């Protein structure tokens, strides 16, 4: 019998709770710094993608931020 995977497939749309929003705000505020909080890179990366898609942050800052993860 085939083993059923319990791992969920990644959703295509993300909803952020208040904690996530605070973390995103902090990340954006720290965008100019050389070191970015390394807490949860995957969550932060999803946040960056969403911020990028909304067009509210400079592309150069965004790419610098992603590179620092």
pLDDT averaged residue by residue: 64
Strand content: under 5%
Helical content (DSSP H or I, runs of 4+):
40-55%
> In whole angstroms, how far apart are the ends?
41 Å
Order of helices and strands: HHH
* Count of individual helical segments: 3
**Could you describe the largest sheet, including whether it forms a barrel?**
none
Count of beta strands: 0
Gross geometry: globular
Structure class: mainly alpha
In the predicted model, the low-confidence regions spanning at least 5 consecutive residues are none
Taking Cα atoms only, what radius of gyration do you get, to the nearest Å?
15 Å
How does this model look, in words?
With 69 residues, the protein is mainly α. It has a domain at 18-28 and 40-67. The protein is 51% helix and 0% strand. It has three helices and no strands. Helix 1 crosses helix 2 (41-54). The radius of gyration is 15 Å and the shape is globular. The chain starts with 17 loop residues before the first helix and ends with a helix.
Task: Summarize, please.
By secondary structure, the protein is mainly α.
Please give the structural blueprint:
Blueprint lengths: L17 H12 L11 H14 L4 H9 L2
Helix pairs in contact: 1-2
Question: What attributes does this structure have?
Answer:
69 residues, 51% helix
